[in-house]
Design a protein that fits this description.
By secondary structure, this protein is α+β, with helices and mostly antiparallel strands. It has three helices and seven strands, in the order αβββββββαα. It has a five-stranded antiparallel β-sheet with strand order 1-2-3-6-7. A two-stranded antiparallel sheet has the order 4-5. It is globular and about 45 Å long.
């Protein structure tokens, strides 16, 4: 399985909104395996296809302690169940290396998605998985953790990243 190249901030391709997946074939399985391999190699816990310059709505995640519980989410949709219940989360990103940002995220959400065969699923994620899935869906929408920084900090980060 090839390791995919992760786009780095401020690459404009990270801002593209991903398209829904409608074809569930062998290439989707291959893509998910390549994304998982890339995520593990980079010591990440999540990776969106947008980050590897594939603008399709697919995300891979493994938040398990032993790194042995890979999850693949196709066309994931998060529904916020309580928008008043926000928790602070310190987030890093493979596309913005060396930067951690505190992000306020809802901790009560419902997640709907398809697996790589096109079967529907629903869950109410908890803990780190809740944070991670929201972070990765942000990528599918062209949003980055840098967007949660003040304009001044965004400007500094952009200067540092382009050097």
């Amino acid at each position: 399985m090839p390791i995919l190249k992760i786009l780095k901030y401020p690459d404009p391709r990270l801002r593209k909104v991903a398209e829904e997946i409608s074809l569930f074939d062998k290439s989707l399985e291959t893509l998910s395996n390549d994304m998982l391999e890339t995520m593990y190699k980079e010591n990440g816990i999540g990776l969106a296809a947008t980050q590897v310059d594939i603008h399709k709505r697919i995300v891979v995640i493994d938040v398990s302690e032993d790194r042995d519980d890979p999850m693949v989410f196709v066309n994931p949709v998060v529904t916020i169940l309580d928008d008043k219940s926000l928790v602070p989360c310190e987030e890093g990103c493979l596309s913005v290396p060396g930067v951690n940002v505190e992000v306020m995220r809802p901790d009560k959400v419902k997640l709907n998605w398809l697996d790589i065969k096109g079967n529907n699923h629903e869950m109410h994620p908890e803990g780190l998985l809740t944070v991670c899935i929201q972070h990765e869906i942000d990528h599918l929408e062209g949003k980055l953790i840098a967007d949660f920084l003040s304009p001044l900090k965004q400007s500094r980060l952009k200067k540092k990243a382009t050097k």
